[in-house]
Design a protein that fits this description.
Elements (H helix, E strand, L loop, with lengths): L3 H32 L2 E2 L7 E2 L13 E2 L14 H8 L1 E4 L16 E4 L4 E3 L7 E3 L9 E5 L21 E4 H8 L11 E2 L2 H7 L2 E4 L1 E15 L3 H23 L2 H20 L4 H6 L18 E9 L11 E6 L2 E13 L9 E9 L10 E17 L4 E2 L4 E8 L2 E12 L3 E6 L6 E5 L1 H18 L9
Antiparallel strand pairs: 1-2, 1-3, 4-5, 6-7, 8-9, 10-20, 11-22, 12-13, 12-17, 13-16, 14-15, 14-17, 15-16, 17-21, 18-19, 19-20, 20-21
Helix pairs in contact: 5-6
């Protein structure tokens, strides 16, 4: 009987301890609910009981709305709970901006039913909703590590939370337009853009004028002078034979006219200029020396690739090195029909007016021919990268995204290129600082290629 009292006291003590444990567990549950009041919008699985910064991305924590599921009462996987409570909405609305199955790294987080407008195109609206049960997860990845894949949720080697890649998104990527070979899109922060001096220019339709610059000389051409004299003599002989009525003499004189005409054509004179010679009193003396007429002939070579832009009737502007500030203008009268095999150029002949006799035979001058190309879509020449097999420009898509585009170029006219395909009017292309963007784009493409799994080869 003496032991009964201690037993009763021990039972009471045990009950008190159990009650204390239950109260403590209940308080823990309440504390867990309170501790989940703040979360990271980029990493919803991270919660805190006080405001501050996310230790993963340094983003300000956001206060959780009332009615949120307490962490202590949740029985789901943390990543699964995050996908039910929030969903990442791609700024580029997951259309053709997913690359090789990777989710867009430029994301915001929205609650179910919240509308998010794309800040790049300004038209697409994405609805945040819970992930359907039928949506299959292919693998988990870190957008900051090209090619990294994991079978389940967790953290990447960089300490970032992994994000899922769904089968539907990968199928959308398969139908997207591919990037140029060896290039990948690049994301740059505003600070980095400022550091490397990124400057953009808008592709727009403009009047392009190409200036062909070349070195010419004032003609001294005794051979052409002699050929013109022979042609004029043959024309006179033909007229005399026809007047005499001798058929055989007229036929022979006609052959001489045809022969001299062909020789003049091979020397570069146009058919129109040869026809004008019929009214001349004699060969052109300005081919030998400056005369009182003030007319001189200018010979300028034009390279083969620029010949399609040159035509009879265009204006030529001439500057004389020995007479600074003095300019002469003339008109193109003919273009040689045969190229010089050594220089791959054709000689262009123009007539200049020199009333003061400043220009002397065999004098060298600087000549320029302004060619109007028309109203064309154009971008600055410094925006184009020539790789040898393709021409690349980087299009500014906004929000720090620069996308490589392969373009087809036309005429180059005074620091501008005509663009035939690859971009549309109004798109902004990088015109300064694109060397570093090009390097980073190539490096990213190389890393993605190295991380990509090898394709299965049948028969091996």
């Amino acid at each position: 009987m003496r032991l009964a009292k201690p037993l009763v006291i021990g039972a009471v003590a045990v009950a008190a301890v159990a009650a204390a444990v239950l109260v403590s567990h209940s308080d823990t549950g309440r504390q867990t609910t309170v501790q989940g009041m703040y979360y990271c919008p980029m990493h919803p699985t991270y919660t805190s009981n006080r405001p501050g910064d996310c230790p993963i991305c340094n983003m300000k924590l956001v206060k959780r709305a009332r009615g949120a599921v307490p962490a202590a009462t949740s029985t789901h996987d943390p990543h699964e709970h995050a996908s039910e409570q929030f969903q990442s909405i791609c700024y580029l609305h997951n259309c053709a901006k997913l690359h090789e199955g990777k989710p867009c790294p430029m994301t915001v987080v929205a609650k179910p039913g919240e509308t998010v407008t794309c800040p790049i195109c300004g038209t697409h609206v994405a609805e945040a909703a819970t992930v359907p049960a039928a949506k299959k997860i292919l693998y988990w990845t870190d957008p900051m590590i090209p090619g990294y894949r994991a079978p389940g949720p967790g953290q990447s080697p960089m300490g970032m939370d992994l994000v899922p890649v769904y089968a539907e998104d990968a199928a959308a990527v398969a139908g997207a337009a591919p990037n140029p070979e060896g290039y990948a899109p690049v994301l740059l922060t505003p600070q980095k853009q400022q550091l490397i001096g990124v400057r953009t220019a808008v592709a727009q339709t403009r009047a392009l004028t190409k200036t062909i610059r070349t070195a010419g000389r004032i003609a001294y051409d005794p051979e052409l002078y002699q050929t013109e004299a022979e042609h004029l003599q043959s024309l006179k002989a033909l007229a005399q034979a026809k007047a005499a009525g001798t058929g055989e003499g007229a036929e022979q004189a006609q052959r001489l006219v045809d022969s001299s005409r062909m020789k003049l054509r091979l020397m570069g004179l146009s058919q129109e200029l040869i026809n004008e010679m019929a009214d001349w009193d004699g060969p052109d003396k300005s081919l030998l020396l400056s005369d009182a007429s003030g007319k001189v002939w200018l010979y300028v070579p034009v390279y083969e690739f620029e010949l399609p832009l040159v035509a009879v009737g265009q204006t030529v502007s001439v500057e004389v090195p020995s007479s600074a500030g003095t300019r002469f203008e003339g008109t193109i009268r003919s273009v040689d029909s045969v190229l010089d095999p050594a220089t791959r150029s054709a000689r262009v002949r123009a007539v200049l007016t020199d009333p003061n006799g400043t220009l002397k035979p065999e004098m060298f001058v600087n000549a320029s021919i302004a060619v109007t190309a028309g109203e064309l879509l154009a971008i600055p020449e410094e925006a184009v990268f020539h790789t040898g097999t393709q021409d690349i420009v980087f299009v500014d898509k906004g929000q720090g995204l620069f996308e490589p585009h392969r373009v087809t170029l036309g005429v180059k006219a005074d620091r501008f290129y005509e663009v035939k395909s690859g971009i549309v009017e109004g798109e902004a292309v990088v015109a300064s600082g694109n060397f570093l963007i090009d390097s980073e784009s190539r490096l990213k493409a190389a890393l993605q290629g190295a991380a990509a799994p090898p394709e299965h080869q049948h028969g091996q």
